[in-house]
Amino acid sequence: MFDYSNIQLQNITPTWLPGTIQAAMLRLDLLHDAVSGNKWFKLQCNVAAAKAAGRDHIVTFGGAYSNHLAATAAACRLLGMRCTAVVRGEAAPRLSHTLQLAQQQGMQLHFVTREAYREKATRDWTAEFPDAWFVPEGGHNAAGAKGCEEILSIKDISGFTHIICAVGTGTTLAGLINSAAPQQQLKGYVVLKGAEYLSDEVKALLKERSAPPWELIHAHHGGGYAKVKGELIEFMNQFYEETKIPLDVVYTGKLVQGFKKDIESGLYPAGSRVLLIHSGGLQGNLSLKKGVLHY
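RE: above sequence
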């Protein structure tokens, strides 16, 4: 559906990167304006399964600032499919930029209370949405992980010793683990506070084979999901000035900032070649006041 030739493997040399370590970023954000980053990879097998079952209506789940909802809306519009979002919480007087974008793409918004949303996994939604195909929040299922296995085949990444990405649900990380070479080390930078449960979530999506070494890093969530501090904004602006790569405040900003701090702490030995996965999500920056970010 998309032309992967738009995706670049860009070497990065920010001032804080020592000469003993090499790094590059896989620019999944360049895939598409609206269906960018890892979102399409998590969606592609889910969409294929829906079509195989003869369904043309996707129902998925998320909060008011969910990149997944925005990307699903855009993808379904391109595919000529109907889509509905079950949104956590009551509708605000003014919808978030994310929900406005989703609505503009034709997505129907179905708001439920936070209590009802917490019970979404055990609730039977088929009565409300007959003949729909259901995709979990964030595309977090085996089909989502399978789609993400394609990410590491886009460019030749065989020479990298480490592969790192931001982690929300763990779906993308699971796909990367399933497709990485046995000697490559994978690290997932968790953007949620108190998310130790994610280890089991990732393990549940791994293939039955000897996985390469991997770990979750919980030290760089910056106070919790979508919590934005001035230090992060300053870091993102500086990184853009040096690399011309835009980051988002929820995922990739914290990934790269955490990578910097872990280099300084000695986590990455001399000779490391590190691949950072840019998972897109730049539309999330629209929630910031204009001018806060320099791009």
